[in-house]
Amino acid sequence: MANTNASASPVPNISHDDIRAQLHCILASCDFDEPDRVRAFLSFVVEETLAGRADRIKAYVIAVEVFGRGADFDVTNDPVVRIEAARLRRGLERYYLLAGSSASIVIDIPKGGYVPSFRWQSNDLCGPEQPRIPVLQPSADPRPRMITWLRLPWLGAFALALAIGSLVTFLAMADQQMKTTRASPEGPALVVKPFVNLSGKVEAQVFAAGLEEEILSQLTPTKELRIFRSEAVKALASSVSSSDIDRPLGRRYMLEGVIREGDGKLRISSRLVDGETTAIIWSGIYEADLKALSGFDIETTLASKIVASVSLHRPWAKVQ
Q1: Residue pair 27/19 in contact by the 8 Å Cβ criterion
Q2: Fewest Cβ atoms closer than 10 Å to its Cβ: which of 104, 227, 235, 290?
Q3: Quick one: pLDDT at residue 183?
Q4: Which CATH class is domain 189-318?
Q5: pLDDT digit string (tens) for 46-76?
Q6: What is the pLDDT of residues 25-51, one digit of tens each?
């Protein structure tokens, strides 16, 4: 039986039972709407940590024991663990912003690794008692200490005029700063365009929208690259060319593709385009059997392959 004493917990004053209870709340919450593999990821790292095996929580171990990868799994060329860890962090953040805002314990996966951390939430009344801040008692009658010059009408008018002038100056500077920011985009960016449905079938259109969302969820913004969804560009349609988007907005790279359905199979063509030169940097073709896998599994698998290929090429790293 696992030790449930607080002294054996990774964090003082938090027992194993408390942590497992919070894990159960997260997994049962509708606000933690993540696939089974992400839920298994969270359960695995929490249980390994509670069992005193945090040193085993590495990308290779997670890929093999959680995602079913083979013993020849290559951490360098397969980013599946990094992608799913980013999704897990976003899922936990969303949970604690919504249903978990009043939870007693916070379970987090700090960036830079996969070992979870546990702490009491600051607004929790069941956690360790917070130090009390002494309250200063007001004097019996503070009115005699009021500065008399504030009552003079001309000084009040002067102070009001000075405040208004400062506010006008601040607003003018802020507006100028916003115009400058809008006029000069910083660094390269990647815009994910809607995938074009060439089959004309409603099912394929739904799949195209789901694939776009899955790709966006797996792409992780970094210091060297900003990521935009299609709605970030006003009236962006699948027919808008990459160069037309790049010129006014300074966005350099576009991820686009087409989807065809027939005989129970899907064929997806995707490509990464330089928005300035319209040169095709990478392209790939993928096929999936609609009868063998569910739509969600196909979306996740194809999105992982596309994101892995885009991450492997990383043309924006050459223009920094």
Answers
A1: no
A2: 235
A3: 41
A4: alpha beta
A5: 999 999 999 999 999 999 999 999 999 998 8
A6: 999 999 998 999 999 999 999 999 999
